[in-house]
Design the sequence.
């Protein structure tokens, strides 16, 4: 049996990581979600409707672009990008949000709920709610609301209720905490549409499977463009949904090296980065076991990155597993490197990337020089419309 069909196991474990450690009141609700997903993911009607949505609403397939100018600038490897920035709403998030909305519709739910960091998941879920005629409640940290104002406006225009989260670090972890608290009293009628390959089972598997379309398309497109598979495949990793979407298309191609790029922030000092796999240790967060950045008391540590969507002290359990098995190599890019990549891609390719995606671009820029004659495929997981005000007001327009 292939990797994707055998992993995770029936309890939601990827090796030692994953599972579902839930408050007793939520156990039956997550079982309901699991049972519905396992049934519907094999349903021809569900699959046909999802394929129709992806083609006629989302605009899939998104293309792979050869970043020729950036490749020439760097020297060495040829750089390619899977263009999830061209997916409707501007990022990969809609791939699982439309699927989660469709799941909610089939389950008879009336409302979609979620956390969001950069706001892309929030926008995508608000879009899905509008499409399916559902209510929508989005929890977002106050710091991220200020940084990602355009996405807050979009969510409200789409009809979502945006709940500001003002406790703790006022960022993504706290948004998850807040949404879980709100969901407990609404679980009969609402679906908590977790925004990444994190959370209790079945979400790490379910979101990966819904994002698998990225890898399937990219593998086929790259073969058609070049006649061979890429030598290196890379994506940014916060929770890790865009990365698992891309990696899943190449996971069984042993000659393709896979790289996850974490946010190194401003330094390796605890609280100044969000490089969970690079500096974390085994632990539990939000109802599942994974690798976690911990403070001196063993609690999830404060984190920092210029990219709000990567601002999480944990990581998807499948990423922890792939790190442990060695199938994926995890590295990091700093705020400075990500900003440099943001400006370079904008100036030399006419593509303004999301700050999250700019971490993957930074990896490609860094690695290209050392790998002449090779090819690097990155996931351009989102576009930078949401970031342009923050970047230009804080850092200017680059050189």
Sequence:
């Amino acid at each position: 049996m292939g990797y994707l069909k055998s992993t995770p196991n029936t309890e939601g474990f990827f090796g030692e990581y994953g599972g579902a450690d839930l408050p007793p009141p939520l156990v039956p609700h997550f079982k309901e979600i699991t049972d519905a997903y396992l049934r519907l993911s094999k349903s021809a009607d569900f699959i046909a409707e999802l394929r129709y949505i992806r083609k006629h609403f989302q605009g899939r397939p998104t293309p792979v672009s050869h970043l020729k100018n950036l490749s020439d600038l760097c020297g060495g490897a040829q750089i390619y990008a899977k263009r999830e920035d061209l997916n409707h709403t501007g990022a990969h998030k809609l791939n699982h949000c439309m699927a989660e909305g469709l799941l909610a519709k089939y389950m008879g739910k009336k409302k979609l709920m979620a956390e969001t960091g950069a706001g892309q998941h929030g926008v995508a879920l608000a879009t899905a709610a509008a499409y399916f005629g559902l209510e929508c409640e989005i929890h977002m940290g106050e710091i991220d609301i200020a940084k990602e104002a355009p996405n807050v406006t979009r969510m409200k225009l789409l009809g979502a209720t945006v709940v500001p989260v003002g406790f703790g670090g006022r960022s993504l972890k706290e948004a998850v905490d807040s949404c879980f608290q709100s969901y407990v009293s609404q679980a009969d009628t609402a679906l908590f549409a977790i925004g990444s390959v994190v959370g209790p089972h079945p979400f790490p598997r379910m979101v990966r499977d819904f994002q698998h379309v990225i890898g399937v398309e990219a593998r086929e497109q790259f073969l058609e463009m070049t006649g061979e598979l890429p030598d290196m495949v890379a994506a940014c990793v916060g929770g890790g949904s865009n990365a698992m979407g891309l990696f899943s298309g190449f996971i069984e191609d042993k000659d393709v090296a896979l790289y996850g790029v974490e946010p190194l922030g401003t330094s390796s000092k605890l609280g100044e980065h969000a490089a969970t796999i690079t500096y974390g240790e085994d632990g539990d967060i939000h109802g599942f076991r994974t690798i976690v950045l911990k403070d001196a008391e063993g609690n999830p540590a404060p984190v920092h990155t210029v990219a709000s969507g990567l601002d999480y002290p944990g990581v998807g359990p499948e990423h922890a597993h792939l790190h442990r098995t060695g199938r994926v190599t995890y590295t990091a890019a700093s705020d400075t490197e990500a900003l440099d990549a943001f400006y370079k891609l904008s100036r030399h390719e006419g593509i303004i990337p999301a700050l999250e995606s700019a971490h993957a671009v930074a990896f490609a820029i860094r690695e290209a020089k050392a790998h002449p004659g090779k090819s690097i495929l990155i996931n351009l997981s989102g576009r930078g419309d949401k970031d342009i005000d923050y970047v230009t007001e804080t850092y200017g327009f680059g050189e």
